[in-house]
Every structure is written in C-alpha cells, then in structure tokens.
Amino acid sequence: MNFLPSFEVLAAFTAASFLLLITPGPDMTLFLGETLRSGRARGMAAMLGATTGLLVHSLLAAFGLSAILAASATAFTVIKIVGAAYLVYLAVQAVRHGSALTIKPGKGVQRPIAQVFAMGVGVNLLNPKIVMFFLTFLPQFVSATDPQASQKLLFLGLYFLVLGIPTCAVLILMAEQFTAAIRRSPRVMRAIDWTFAGIMGAFAVRLLFARSN
C-alpha cells in the first residue's frame, strides 16, 4: 500500500491532528453547546454535521493539491513554504490570544436534529479559515517529489476525519466534565495552546531545514 505515509510521518500527523481536535474552535463550541443545552443526541448531530463539512474540505484540499502537484512540483513546494508561514502565524495567535470556547449556560430551545446537523455542516463549509488550514496543513506531511503524493494527501485528509469522530464523540460524552475542567483551570487550556504552538512551529522549522538540505 504505497499510499500510506511512513510510520514517522503518520505518527506526527496523528499527534498533531489529535491536538487540533481537542483545541476549541467554532465546531467544538457548537457541538458541546448543543450537548449541554439539549442533550447528547443533538451534540452528536452537530458533530456529525461538522464532520461532513470537514469531509468536503478534505476532499477539495486533497484533489486541489494533487492537481497543483501534477501541474508543478515547484508550485506545490511554494504552497508548503507559504503553509509553513501560516502555521507559524497560527502558533503565534495561539500563544497571544489562546483558544476560545464560549458556551452559554442554561437550557436553550431544542432545535430539530436535522437543523442541528445542518448547522454543523454550515459551521465548517462557511469558514474560510478551515479551507486555508487544510490547504496549508496537509502538504507539510507530503514531499513534492513523492510519486504517491496525491494518494497520500487524500489518505491523510480522510484519516483526519477517522481520528476526529471518536475523539469528538468522547468529548460529547464527557461534555460536562470537559467544560468544567477548562473553567476551573485556565492553565489546562494554556498548556494546550503552548503545545499547539510548539507543534505548528516545529512543522515550519522541519520544512525550512528540509528545504535547506
């Protein structure tokens, strides 16, 4: 199975993806908020909707990047370098501003599950930052000279989703404990922020050293 990345690359991607999945963002705010206000069924619906949006982004990014690679390995390398700069920007933003998890307490109006699912889809499809992230994150794990690069891009995009569903499901099942822990100890989120920043910065440095060699 030549489309599989090396063990080292897959391990690094898994670690980075897991950290990204537990870092609060609009999608987490939505599905944890729905869980706390309306129950786990609606939390799961919101999460699956968000995952559907991510699936679209993953496929578009993988096929788009594959097309760029097929047209020009140099252009793909330029995207990787621009991506490294973007990852450094994300690292700096995480340290400066931290993660945002804003969940309103109390009971809310119970929306139909189909509507909650659609909201989850919309949170991702309408967020240009997610498009930018996939276009800059995935290439960091693939070499422009790899003959199986296009297949590996697609594999990594789908693998991210496979990691995300059980991880987010656990967060939903433990929504009350997770949000309470964050509120009790801001240091926990700051530790996640710094770890996130460190990993994003490490990817950028790794790419620059690879280019210098």
Automatic annotation (TrEMBL):
It is a multi-pass membrane protein. The chain crosses the membrane at residues 6-23, 44-63, 69-92, 113-138, 158-179, 191-209. GO terms for molecular function: amino acid transmembrane transporter activity. InterPro entries: LeuE-type (IPR001123). GO terms for cellular component: plasma membrane. It is found in: Cell membrane. This is Homoserine/homoserine lactone efflux protein. It comes from Variibacter gotjawalensis.
